[in-house]
Hints:
The protein is an alpha+beta fold. It has a single domain (about 40-195), classed as Protein Transport Mog1p, Chain A (3-Layer(aba) Sandwich), CATH 3.40.1000.70. The protein has helices at about 5-10, 25-30, 35-40, 95-110, 180-190, and strands at about 40-45, 70-80, 85-90, 115, 120-130, 135-145, 150-160, 165-170. It has an 8-stranded antiparallel β-sheet, sandwiched between helices. A hairpin with a 2-residue loop joins β4 and β5. It is globular. About 30% of the residues are buried. Residues about 1-10 have low confidence and may be disordered.
Amino acid sequence: MITVTLSLVLALSPATEIPRNFLLSEPAARKTQTPEEAYEQGYKISDKLTRPLELNPCVHRRAADRGRLAARTITLWTSAPSGASEQLVLYKSSRAAHAAFAQLRAEVKRCARKGDPASPALRIRWRTSPAKAGDESIGMGYQTWQDGSVNETITGVVARRGSALMIYTTSDGSYNPGGLTKDARKMAAKVCSLPGVC
């Protein structure tokens, strides 16, 4: 007869929730702001499983991936035309997380150049670049063009570690995923503290 310890069972069971203040930006996002601070910038925190991935080339209205167990998304807005986001999604297995990562890579190629039906003059161009974080990763982002000029640039990094997928984005500056890789690497190491992720 084989005896399995409770700690071993917990280690092999996938994590079904993300602890409070686990994301890198979460302590700042949960901090109470003064009215002056709230006027300059603010955070939104969402644990909705149906929320699309923060990098969403084909503009899904709901999550297009499968096998999610838990998710948390933190978005930062500022009074200047800029913002950032951090998203962590836990899947039922490494295979499900890899499938979500592969689907996103395929979608950025399929939907690389899109127009906005509501604004025919607005063009969106997606691009990818190498990145190094976790088990697999990619730099990804887009620029919007109108009347031959760049309106907005969004830069992001997507990384997978075990059964976790993490995404970091910013609208500051020009396209430079390398600036976000540090956070992706930090989270890729941190998720291994959650049961069953690595």
